[in-house]
Write a structure and sequence with these properties.
By secondary structure, the chain is of the alpha+beta class. The chain has one domain. The chain has 4 helices and 5 strands, in the order E-E-E-E-H-H-E-H-H. This is GIY-YIG domain-containing protein.
């Protein structure tokens, strides 16, 4: 069981009004198999749309002992960028 966070590169999908750059999910199977499903356009609708738009999906974080309950808790934050190491690096001022 694993919770995981995907980051869409190089830019978010959607419109100026509503966009997303992350997908947070859960799998009870192999994370590798689930990631392949997303990359083949057979995962969540948002990841399929990202693939269709030519985005790259990057696995940026995992919670190895994650449960469905943890996935729901993380999703309730509605700020997936807080959990993303790529977005955290962008905010660091040099």
């Amino acid at each position: 069981m694993t919770c995981y966070l995907l980051h869409f590169l190089p830019t978010p999908i959607g419109s100026e009004k509503h966009s997303a750059q992350h997908y947070l999910g859960y799998t009870s199977k192999s994370i590798k198999k689930r990631l392949n499903q997303h990359l083949n356009g057979q995962g969540a609708k948002i990841t399929a749309a990202a693939i269709k738009q030519g985005k790259t999906l990057k696995l940026v974080r995992t919670w190895p002992k994650g449960t469905r309950a943890l996935e729901r808790q993380l999703k309730r934050h509605k700020r997936h960028a807080k959990f993303c190491p790529i977005c955290s690096i962008k905010k660091v001022k040099l």
